[in-house]
């Protein structure tokens, strides 16, 4: 089988202007390029551009797929909506990476299958469409996608690493609510990153159910906005008028929710941190639980 690589980029918050389109077109003569989308596939040769730089400068979402087993998704969000301290506990070298560029954070999620048995789907057009909703979910504070990427990295780590002590010492990140009730974009991401179904089921056992995002109280939101300093309101209105902050509404709602819950979180912060450390499972415990579920499922079959 010959090599095959597929690249897809989406500009969500802002379309590319004429000059930016010309810069991107200079990287590929065969790609399908519009102000909001770039797609191309390669059977011979390679893409001349650097996906990381393209994400930093132009695009908000990227998907890469190669028939030798590499699957990658990148997402770019304003740092006001997703920052490095939030992403930090989920980072794993070569699998989950994040960095800031200007006012944005770029998140890279990668699954690599070097077993020689990589799954392959020739119909990869629009592969990013089912997944890109993850970006809005992360912006609203739903971190299930990050935990799913961590589970994917754990599966790869298990195949490549024989250090039993490392498995015993590595603690899982805090388990987000609703891990057993994935949204459609989260399910698509889990499939693309090859999250093991038994490992996901084992991890979801300690995840509380979720009823979905709660709507903010309109009166309390209005009161919070009225209390903002006049200088800050002017700055927010300027950003809105310039049209360069399409996620401004989500940013304000997130700030309001943080302000609403800050007192409660501060009161219980130290208690919840110590409790969470004792309740968090090690990588070894999760892998053993997944193996037990797998054996039980196969026995029933």
- SSE topology string: EHEEHEEHEEHHHHHHHHH
> Could you give the order of strands across the largest sheet?
2-3-1-4-5-7-6
- Separate helix tally: 12
Strand content: 5-15%
- Main beta-sheet annotation: 7 strands, antiparallel
Count of the separate structural domains:
1
Q: From the alpha carbons, calculate the radius of gyration and give it in angstroms.
A: 21 Å
Derived from helix and strand composition plus strand pairing, the structural class reads alpha+beta
Shape from CA axes? flat
* Distance linking N and C termini: 34 Å
Topology:
Layout: E1 5-10, H1 18-25, E2 32-34, E3 37-42, H2 51-57, E4 61-66, E5 70-78, H3 84-87, E6 96-101, E7 104-112, H4 133-139, H5 144-160, H6 164-169, H7 184-192, H8 197-204, H9 218-226, H10 230-242, H11 248-279, H12 283-300
Antiparallel strand pairs: 1-3, 1-4, 2-3, 4-5, 5-7, 6-7
Helix pairs in contact: 8-12
Protein model, in words:
The protein has 301 residues and is of the alpha+beta class. 46% of the residues lie in helices and 15% in strands. The chain has one domain. It has a seven-stranded antiparallel β-sheet. A hairpin with a 2-residue loop joins β2 and β3. It is flat. About 4% of the residues have low confidence.
């Amino acid at each position: 089988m010959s090599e095959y690589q597929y690249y897809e980029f989406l500009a969500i918050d802002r379309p590319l202007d004429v000059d930016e389109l010309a810069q991107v077109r200079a990287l590929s003569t065969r790609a399908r390029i519009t102000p909001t989308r770039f797609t191309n596939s390669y059977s011979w040769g390679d893409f001349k551009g650097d996906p990381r730089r393209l994400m930093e400068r132009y695009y908000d979402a990227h998907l890469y797929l190669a028939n030798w087993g590499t699957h990658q998704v990148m997402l770019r969000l304003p740092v006001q909506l997703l920052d490095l301290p939030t992403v930090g506990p989920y980072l794993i070298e070569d699998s989950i990476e994040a960095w800031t560029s200007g006012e944005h954070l770029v998140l890279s999620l990668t699954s690599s299958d070097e077993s020689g048995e990589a799954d392959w789907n020739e119909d990869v057009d629009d592969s990013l469409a089912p997944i890109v909703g993850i970006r809005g979910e992360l912006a609203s504070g739903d971190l299930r996608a990050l935990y799913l990427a961590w589970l994917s990295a754990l599966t790869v780590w298990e195949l490549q690493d024989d250090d039993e002590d490392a498995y015993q010492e590595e603690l899982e990140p805090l388990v987000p609510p609703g891990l057993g009730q994935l949204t459609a974009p989260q399910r698509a991401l889990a499939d693309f990153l090859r999250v093991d179904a038994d490992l996901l089921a084992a991890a979801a056992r300690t995840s509380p159910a979720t009823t979905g995002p709660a709507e903010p109280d309109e009166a309390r939101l209005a009161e919070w906005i009225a209390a903002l300093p006049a200088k800050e309101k002017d700055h927010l209105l300027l950003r809105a008028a310039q049209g360069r902050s399409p996620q401004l509404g989500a940013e304000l709602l997130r700030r309001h929710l943080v302000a609403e819950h800050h007192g409660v979180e501060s009161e219980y912060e130290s208690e919840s941190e110590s409790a969470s450390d004792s309740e968090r499972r090690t990588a070894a415990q999760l892998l053993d639980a997944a193996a037990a579920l797998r054996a039980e499922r196969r026995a029933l079959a």
